[in-house]
Amino acid sequence: MDRRPGLSPAVAEVRRAVRAVLEGRTGAVVVALSGGADSLALAAATGFEAERLGIRVEAVVIDHGLQEGSDAVARRAAEAVRGRGIDARVVAVDVVANDGPEADARAARYAGLARAATEIGADAVLLGHTLDDQAETVLLGLARGSGATSLAGMAPERRDATGPVWLRPLLGVHRRTTAAACAAEGFDAWSDPHNADPSYARVRVRERVLPVLETELGPGVAEALARTAEQLREDAAAFQDMIDETIEDIVEHAEAGISISVAALAANPAALRNRVIRYVVESEFGVSLTRAQTLEVARLAVDWRGQGAIDLPSCTARRVAARIEIVARGRG
């Protein structure tokens, strides 16, 4: 326990959460630092726990260059943790317009963090997402009808094929706790103006939707949403194991694409059948199918009435004898 005389309960809670993900690790770690209360509390706790465990830690501040004075904000954040004995660096990134402002900034941020981790020699990056962030993510996924994968929210640990492990130690910690820990540590946290801009759906969920749900349904809504995400991640992991086993038996490579056995696909329950279709298309062509598109492809197996080829993003699906062929657009 960290409850020594004079130690803030909020600081103790954040430290316990960080210790749980650091114990057993030996390699250097990076803390993603924005200068906000969540990331400052995370950095302070990581610095404290890493020293006890003999782990090197460095904070990395990403400067997106999207707001006037962002470079000064980044420098202040780095200086704040340097004052606590934590190494820190500022990394400027270029945000390329592609999928919208939020998604583009996120892509640039993660790429910058991954590059910094490689330069530092760190095998893990700690991110400051809280239980409240998780609840907001689940609600947004629910509103968009994105399916169970989206409702599973953010994973506490995510491993990419290459690059660092992404760790989120604070998914069980409330934002109010990180704010209290930050205040107890004497940090002057920065408030990102984007976090108060109602033009962003996430801000509207945070400022309007969740408070209404808490008022009308009672306290604990955020915790319930976070529990839902955890349960759905468990389901998704089980489904993924089933998908991997199924694909080995029913999917074959075809010219410019893949082919799937009609009989084998139709024999599976709808939930597994649809996931197999979405997974193989995303793996082969790098695109995500909508539910309507997925069901149209499934009909080639379970409701075949001679329908023609189905145009999908970057590819085309058609039935050929006892198989469904999914090939690159313009091929076959």
TrEMBL record:
Q: Where in the cell is it found?
A: Cytoplasm
**EC number(s) reported in the record:** 6.3.4.19
Q: Which gene encodes it?
A: tilS
Q: Which reaction does it catalyse?
A: cytidine(34) in tRNA(Ile2) + L-lysine + ATP = lysidine(34) in tRNA(Ile2) + AMP + diphosphate + H(+)
Q: What is this protein called?
A: tRNA(Ile)-lysidine synthase
> Where is each tRNA(Ile)-lysidine synthase substrate-binding domain found?
261-322
Q: Which UniProt keywords apply?
A: ATP-binding, Coiled coil, Cytoplasm, Ligase, Nucleotide-binding, tRNA processing
Q: What's the record's remark on domains?
A: The N-terminal region contains the highly conserved SGGXDS motif, predicted to be a P-loop motif involved in ATP binding.
The organism encoding this protein is Microbacterium phycohabitans
The answer, when asked if Cell cycle is one of the entry's keywords, is no
